[in-house]
Amino acid sequence: MLSRRELLRLLPAGGLTAGVLGWGDVVAARASEIRTRGKACILLWMQGGPSQFETFSPLEGHKHGGDTKAIATNVAGMRFAEHWPEAAKVADRLAVIRSMTSKEGSHPRASYLLHTGYLPNPSARHPTLGSIVASQIAAARGGETDDLPPVVRIGGRGRADSGAGLLGMQWDPFEMRDPTQSPANTSPHVPADRHERRLDLMERLDAGFAAHLPEEAADHRDLYRRATRMIMSADMRAFELDAEPESVRAMYGDGPFASGCLLARRLVEHGVSFVEVVSNGWDTHQDNFTKVATLAGEVDRPMAALVRDLESRGLLDDTLVIWMGEFGRTPQVNPRGGRDHFPRSFNAVLAGGGVGGGRVIGRTDAAGVEVADRPVTVPDLFATFCRSLGIDPTVENMASSGRPIKLVDGGTPVEELFAG
């Protein structure tokens, strides 16, 4: 059986000659080997709170729907807002939860809640979903980690809701602002043996510091060692989007979000457990309809391409793809043509990871105000993520206060998503 690193050695550094299997072909042919390294999760985060009515829960025949039209999908009776024609073509792989509900309408608190499953608490730094997924997948593999960071966040700035919290800095996300550029300062400037000697010297010089603050020194030493493994690794090829065939890049489309989705697929292929790709600008308090149409135009095609691409490579069954933001928008349109914060009912979309596609969970009343059927809370959603990824949500970690904290704050998985 080929290891991932052995597989990489078989591939040319760039491009292919006629008659030779391409990168995607070889990876697809060896997908079973890749999958043995564990499941993965890709979060498509709509920063600001996307309007459910202009995305996956259009309000047809009601004044609250505004001028947004609904379109048919490839699943009978399942309709999306008109701005999502490519997602409509893969609706049979998507599950839409139209009955998400929360009480948090503040961006910082709601974003923290939808990233960690908990409300902010000064006595504990809760780990984000990415850190939970990566640490638990590594634990299932006997603590083994790959050369690349286990958690990567693309397109957003560091926030309070983006860290590993009480799990420790090794599970913090690796931040990338521009997916089209290789990570900065990752090209070795000296031979590997010389670099190793420099690290040894640094650790000897840190001996005095380590004697007084052993935990901090260990974290410092581990950070440098992990960074060395990363920059010396053949897996750094994962960041080279130019290595993709033009046909694949065209499938995803143009723009930072499209590049981020393509990079997410490449990173998952290389053993990264969790990738978050951020789309900014969804806080549409004014000119909601024009802004959402533009934003959807940036997200729709790459989102659908990601689902298709993962499936074609045999990776979708073991990769959970999540589309969501921190809350929804008000059914009523304000005087500025916008929709305001509305956590009472909103939506989320899942694909892969054992989730059955072509289905809708829950509904609101005709006005889009109240959840009328099958409410799904944030803890329920996180329990569902754990169900998909084979994670025990009752696992506890100890906060600095000495209080045990479960991975998920209660909740029950939405089992209808997994029914045959």
What this model shows, in words?
By secondary structure, the protein is an alpha/beta fold. It has two domains: 4-12 and 20-184 and 236-417, Alkaline Phosphatase, subunit A, CATH 3.40.720.10; 189-231. The protein is 34% helix and 15% strand. It has an eight-stranded mixed β-sheet with strand order 6-5-7-1-8-11-4-12, sandwiched between helices. Strands 2-3 form a two-stranded antiparallel ribbon. It has a two-stranded antiparallel sheet with strand order 9-10. A hairpin with a 6-residue loop joins β13 and β14 (371-373). Mean pLDDT is 86; it is low at 1-36.
> What low-confidence regions span 5 or more consecutive residues with pLDDT below 50?
1-36
User: What composes the largest sheet?
Assistant: 8 strands, mixed
Please report the distance between the alpha carbons of the first and last residues.
Answer: 32 Å
Helix content: 25-40%
Helix segment count?
A: 13
The third-level CATH topology of the largest domain is Alkaline Phosphatase, subunit A
Number of strands: 16
What is the strand and helix layout of this fold?
Layout: H1 4-10, H2 23-29, H3 31-35, E1 40-46, E2 70-72, E3 79-81, H4 85-89, E4 94-100, H5 107-116, H6 129-140, E5 151-154, E6 174-176, H7 192-205, H8 207-212, H9 214-231, H10 246-252, H11 256-269, E7 274-279, H12 288-312, E8 319-324, E9 328-329, E10 341-342, E11 346-351, E12 359-361, E13 363-364, E14 371-373, H13 378-389, E15 396-398, E16 404-406
Parallel strand pairs: 1-7, 1-8, 4-12, 5-6, 5-7
Antiparallel strand pairs: 2-3, 4-11, 8-11, 9-10, 13-14, 15-16
